[in-house]
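JOB MANIFEST
job_type = single_chain_structure
chain_count = 1
residues = 169
[input]
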Amino acid sequence: MEDERIDLPEIAEASDAGEAESADAAELKKQRDDYYDRLLRKTAEFDNYRKRTDRERQQLSEAAAADLLTELLPLVDDMERALRAEGNDADPIRKGVELIHKQLVEILRKRGVRPIEALGADFDPHYHMAVAHEHADDKREGEVIEEFRRGYTLGDRLLRPAMVKVAKG
């Protein structure tokens, strides 16, 4: 029966070892959770950074395109003035200007540039620049009665307001 005898100090050491392993496991679990939380936060921060830089790059690209398109608009105006001038429709120079005008207008249309329809519309200070007022009995108050220079938008963005004459009541 001597072999069956249990040594009490060995049981106490085993119990202490179990508690130490349990404390180590809890500490490791806490560290794991902390690292996982950090990983989630860094992943979210990186995702937000990527989205912000993509948005900024897109805005910069749109602004550069808008600047270039705005610089082309006076060219369109000049061609339209040349086409309105009196002249022979069979003139080869006029036909060339018409062709170039059509191509330029088509390029602008493909890029999303749209003219602002001003004639007959109510004056809107966001899209129209009133340069003259005129009494007109047959027109309603605030109606655009003449367009001096066409305005254009690029999507929702105003490239250039239309210069107009507005009716006074």
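[summary]
The first helix runs from residue 8 to 84.
The helical segments are 8-84, 92-110.
exit_status = 0
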